[in-house]
Design brief:
This protein is an alpha/beta fold. The chain has eleven helices and seven strands. Helix 9 packs antiparallel against helix 11. The termini are far apart.
Length: 265
């Protein structure tokens, strides 16, 4: 297995675990539903559009967009287990006709060319080993005039401290984060024109606070779920403290990026 495949498998296993669900809740990205709605407004989503949600996780974003904006959604995730769980949840909520979930790699998205009015990817692009390939795939499946809504972890020009660049940090969605300028460059080189960016660093701080609070509760109650998952609570708390300091020092942040696929190349 290559290092890239190892990272993908490790991330997929971590985010599809019961421990991740306990610590992160329904939304696996900073800002939760509020920032998803912000992306939807910036992309001018409207009823009847087709939307692709890449690295769709447990399906919370797909369900929100389908229910609130009247769009049909194709979610794609690397983890077969979490895709099956997402399908079951959507069927239970009566959304099976408007949401489909697929097992797939962001670097080889199993969706057709020039089809989607919007592509959404939240807190995932920074974990993709081949970002240029993923950006090219976003461009391929978007129809001309369609929008990409990217929400992701960002870093300063100086990068991250070495302790935040381990494989554990990949799973935590920070190790290969880029500057906003670099994200924009990658998208531009893929044929996507960036039309808007905005910072939401406090959304990342709130998620860090949420995870820390839940971990302290886990340590007090010794919940078997976390212990069975092999999570070293003290080690994760140490990592969280490093991440919080990185945000305070301006080394780590969170941003929305909106890009358009031009009607004419």
């Amino acid at each position: 297995m290559t290092r890239a495949e190892d990272i993908k498998s490790c991330c997929a296993a971590a985010y599809s675990s019961d421990a991740a669900a306990l610590l992160l809740g329904d939304s696996y990205h900073p800002g939760g539903a509020a920032l998803t709605r912000r992306l939807a407004r910036l992309m001018s989503l409207r009823s009847g559009q087709r939307v692709a949600d890449i690295a769709s996780g447990p399906g919370a974003t797909a369900r929100l967009l389908a229910a609130e904006y009247g769009v049909t959604v194709d979610g794609v995730d690397f983890a077969e287990h979490i895709v099956q769980r997402s399908r079951e949840t959507s069927e239970r909520l009566g959304l099976a006709d408007t949401i489909r979930f697929h097992v797939g790699d962001a670097e080889r998205i199993p969706l057709p060319d020039n089809t989607f009015g919007a592509v959404v990817s939240e807190c995932a692009f920074c974990t993709f080993p081949a970002k240029t390939a993923a950006a090219a795939e976003f461009q391929r499946i978007l129809r001309p005039g369609g929008y990409l809504g990217l929400a992701d972890v960002t870093v300063a020009d100086t990068g991250l401290p070495e302790e935040l660049r381990t494989l554990t940090a990949w799973v935590a969605c920070v190790a290969d984060a880029q500057t906003v300028a670099r994200y924009c460059q990658i998208l531009d080189e893929a044929g996507l024109r960036v039309v808007h960016t905005e910072s939401h660093d406090q959304a990342l701080v709130r998620m860090i606070d949420q995870i820390e609070a839940r971990l302290h509760l886990v340590r007090m109650t010794r919940k078997n779920l976390i212990i069975a998952a092999g999570t070293d609570v003290d080690r994760v708390l140490e990592f969280i403290d490093l991440a919080r300091h990185a945000v305070a020092d301006g080394l780590l942040g969170y941003a929305l990026v909106i890009a358009e696929k031009p009607i004419r190349p």
